[in-house]
Each structure stands twice: as C-alpha cells, then as structure tokens.
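Example 4.3 (complexes with small molecules)
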Amino acid sequence: MYVPRTTVQPPHRREVSLVSNGVVAPSIHVLMFQWPASDLVNFEPGQYVTFYLQREGKQITRSYSFFSSASHHDRFTLLVKKVPHGFGSTYLCNLSPPEKPILRALAPLGKFVLTDPGDRTVVLVATGTGLAPFVPMLERLRGEHPSTPTWLFFGSRYVDELIDLEELRLLQRVWPGFRFVPVVSRPPTDGSWTGATGHVQEHVRAQLPDLSQADVYLCGVNEMVNEMQEVALQLGCPKEHVFVERYGEDADQQSASPLPMSAPG
Ligand SMILES: Cc1cc2nc3c(=O)[nH]c(=O)nc-3n(C[C@H](O)[C@H](O)[C@H](O)COP(=O)(O)OP(=O)(O)OC[C@H]3O[C@@H](n4cnc5c(N)ncnc54)[C@H](O)[C@@H]3O)c2cc1C
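Answer. The structure with flavin-adenine dinucleotide bound is encoded below.
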C-alpha cells in the first residue's frame, strides 16, 4: 500500500465555513471552505467530505471530493456541478460568503486513494466534476513518482466544461511522464476544437490497448465508470488494479451513513 506522507485521520464531524464561491464553467462552481482553526484536517488525495443538509426537516447527506492540494490543512476547495433540480448541489452553489454560512461536515472519507504504482503505468479517467480527486492525486504523483508514466483522460460534453484545461496542458509540458487527453463529446461546429472528440472510453482503447501493467482510476457519473471498468478489464487490467469512485444515482447513500444531528463531533 501507498505510504501517506501525512497521517490520515479517521473521519470526524466538524463545522466548516464558506470562504468563497466562484463559477468556473457553466453550472460548475469552485467552493472554498475553512476548517475550524482548532480542528485542521489531513486528507489523502482522492478522499471526500460529506455534508449534512436539512431538507424539509429531514437530514440528507451529499458528498464531494477534495479538489485542492492535500498539503493545505486549514482550507479546502470543491468542484461542484449545479445539477438541474438537484437539492444538495443547488444549495451549495447558491451559498454566499457574506452570509458566512456554516455547514456540518464529516471528513476525511473514502478509500479512492493512490496505491504505490511501482513499475505500473497510472491511468486516470474522469468526466465532468470527476476531475476533482485527480487534481490532488496528480500533485502527489508528480512529487513522489515523477518518472511513472501517468495519463489523464478527461471528458466533457462541451469545451467550456473542461476545467483547468490550460493548467493541465501546461502540466504536460513541464512533466515529461504525464500525458493529458481532453475529450469533448459535443465539439463546436466552427472547427475551433482540434483535440479528441467522442467518449473517453474510445480514446483509452486507442492509446493504451494493453492495460495489464496499469493502475486504472475512474471517477465520474455511473455510466462512464461502469463502461470504463468493463473496458479496463477487456484491455487486460487485473480487477484489483481498477479503482472507482461513482458520483451518480445512489452513490450518496452508499458513500455515507447519516449520523444523528446530535452525534458527537
Ligand atoms: C464519494 C462521492 C464524491 C462526489 N464528489 C462530487 C464532486 O466532487 N463534485 C460533484 O459535483 N459531485 C460529486 N458527487 C455527487 C454529489 O454527491 C451529488 O450526488 C450531486 O451533487 C447531486 O446531488 P443533488 O442533491 O444536487 O441532486 P439530487 O437532488 O440528489 O438529484 C440527483 C440527480 O442528479 C443526478 N446527478 C448526480 N450527480 C450528477 C452530476 N455530477 N452530473 C449530472 N447529474 C448528476 C443523479 O443521477 C440524480 O438523477 C460525489 C458523490 C460521491 C458519492
């Protein structure tokens, strides 16, 4: 197993306060929160936070992957898509810093963390806000395994939904082991997008037809993760080297068990 540089803490209830909320792409927000000064957090890249929200008098949970560096212990950022009619994402994306909202959160959570790649290639595949956990993971890989061949396939419907496109292109220029493949399923008709089109699955198949020596990490909505999981197995990746985080239907229920509001924090 990967030896974390930081000591990973067991999950713990905390109250977090919003620092900023900005729109970075259509319907996609970056929210920054602050941990209580007396209660800082060490998380592993790939882990997430679960918020406890009130809906019509009932407590519900919604989870979001850490998007910021794992070396920041006092603050964290999240990449949140405002889902049409989605209760939790709309609530979060409508939060405003001047009101100093405080939310109940449980963190750090999750087992979607890096394993030591050894001699294996690392293949990260994301769609949409599924990019979030891979940003701190890339930072960790570049710092600790710079010569490990590392691929990021990042799919979105539209070009303007490709978060951090320029930063990731720049990363590819300064990190020789890193290959970045942005993929757009609905490219502009004016020919301004000259990159890959279609679905990430096709491009993984085309670029990496043999995944027997790879660790494959998949993150995003269920459909892509399920299809890509099949593709990885078909391309020879052993089952135990495919790691998944699903964001879609039912994933929230599986990701956290609700605690009573009075649970010790
Ligand atoms: C471990 C984990 C980490 C997650 N991390 C993130 C993250 O970093 N960023 C993020 O935006 N979301 C993330 N999610 C999804 C998030 O928890 C919520 O499911 C999402 O915000 C929708 O919640 P909601 O209350 O707004 O929608 P609901 O009122 O619950 O309605 C959900 C509906 O929206 C669909 N839906 C859910 N997520 C999406 C999506 N991303 N795009 C389109 N449709 C969707 C569902 O299939 C369902 O039909 C994560 C989920 C899990 C389990």
